[in-house]
Amino acid sequence: MINVSRTILCWLLLGSLSFGQGGSAIVEPTARNCIKRYEAYANTQGTETVDISKVPAKVTAQKSNVYLGMFYSCMFDQIYDVEVSELGEILNFKRLHPTSISELQDKPKWSREEAVARAWSFAEAVLETLPSNIGQPTVEYESRRVFGGKFTAGVWQVSWKRVDGQGYPFMIDGLDVYLSEAKGGTYVSANFTSKFNDKRFEPIKRDEALKLALAVAGNQTNGSIVNRLFGRSAVLNQTPISDGLFVIRPNSYLVDGSTGVSFGTEARLALGFSFQCTRRAAGSSGGVIIWIDAENGGCIGGDSF
Predict the structure, then answer these.
(1) Are the C-beta atoms of 296 and 221 separated by less than 8 Å?
(2) Which of 160, 191, 222 corresponds to the end of one domain?
(3) CB 176 within 8 A of CB 126
(4) In terms of domains, do 30 and 176 share one?
(5) Higher pLDDT, 83 or 226
(6) Number of continuous H segments (helices) and E segments (strands) in the chain
(7) Are 54 and 172 found together in one domain?
(8) pTM
(9) Dihedral angle of Cα 190, 195, 198, 199, to the nearest 10 degrees
(10) Same structural domain for residues 32 and 139?
(11) What local confidence, expressed as pLDDT, does residue 12 receive?
(12) What is the distance between the alpha carbons of residues 167 and 113, in angstroms, rounded to a whole number?
């Protein structure tokens, strides 16, 4: 199932504040130019557009731990929302369509290849230029039955992860595109802002990294990360349920429980391990994720679930 919150909201918004007229003078023209490019694209696709030339823009500044600083949301009524970085880069474009209900069968109208091609041309129209340091696309499709045998119009999510020089994917950075089979392109998110020293080295072996991750997680002694997160009776399954190499910005979650990515910290290539944890008394379970620096073996953060 496509989950917008997973890819967009869980990392993004930490707060907002009013934005002065001076900044608005910079951000609004950038947003309007983006919308003009979208409209030119939409006209070639037969997609309905709305004239916003007389619609006032509502601009707010927002603080983000994804973009490592401030970005600015430029909203045009309930029609468009364009988010712009401090450098004038388009970060997010949203065409706010109402949900469309149709007689569609619960299967796609488009092939996977057609969805990828449409997503690429939509993103290219909105962003003008697309990055080259990306991997192969991942594709998801969703259409939900609502009532009376009808379905919501099919929605595609096509995502390209940013990759380093050795081809390892970034955990957060990348390009996400959403398209409705009824309404066309609706959303583009481009995040390539993580600072990263792209040097080549041989990552430490998986077995070595696993031992280091287990040492970080600790056993069932009082005060370990597992016990702090899940209680004294929590038991760690020492066989990871998943693991992999990816580039991530360090955080301090496993040290002090604070959420989010540390500001201004360079991303690192890491081996991430996900472990299941069970509460013996309650019988419920959760898990912990530990990131081990692939170059020097240090713990650079993690998460829980």
Answers:
(1) no
(2) 191
(3) no
(4) yes
(5) 83
(6) 7, 16
(7) yes
(8) 0.81
(9) -160
(10) yes
(11) 35
(12) 22
Q: Does the residue 198 lie in any domain?
A: no
Helix (H) or strand (E) holding 234: strand 234-236
| Sign of the torsion formed by the C-alpha atoms of 165, 166, 170 and 176 | positive
Amino acid 279 reads R
**Residue 136 burial by Cβ neighbours in a 10 Å radius (0-12, 13-18, 19+):** exposed
pLDDT in tens, 96-145: 876 666 766 668 889 999 999 999 999 999 998 899 999 999 999 998 77
Residue among 279, 300, 304, 278 at smallest CA distance from 291: 300
Per DSSP, which regions of 134-267 are E strands?
A: 138-142, 151-152, 155-163, 169-180, 184-191, 234-236, 242-248
Which percentage of the chain shows pLDDT scores above 90? 51
Residue 199 lies in a domain: no
Token pair, residue 168, equals: 């390892």
Q: Which domain holds residue 185?
A: 4-191
Strand-strand pairing, 58-64 and 169-180:
unpaired
Locus of tokens 């081990």: 292
**What one-letter code names the amino acid at 170?**
F
Indicate the average pLDDT of the chain: 83
- C-alpha dihedral over 215, 219, 225, 230, to 10 degrees? 150
Contact 34, 28 (CB under 8 A): no
Q: Are residues 104 and 52 in the same domain?
A: yes
Calpha distance 164→284 (Å, rounded): 38
For residue 217, tell me if it sits in a domain: yes
Q: Is residue 201 part of a domain?
A: no
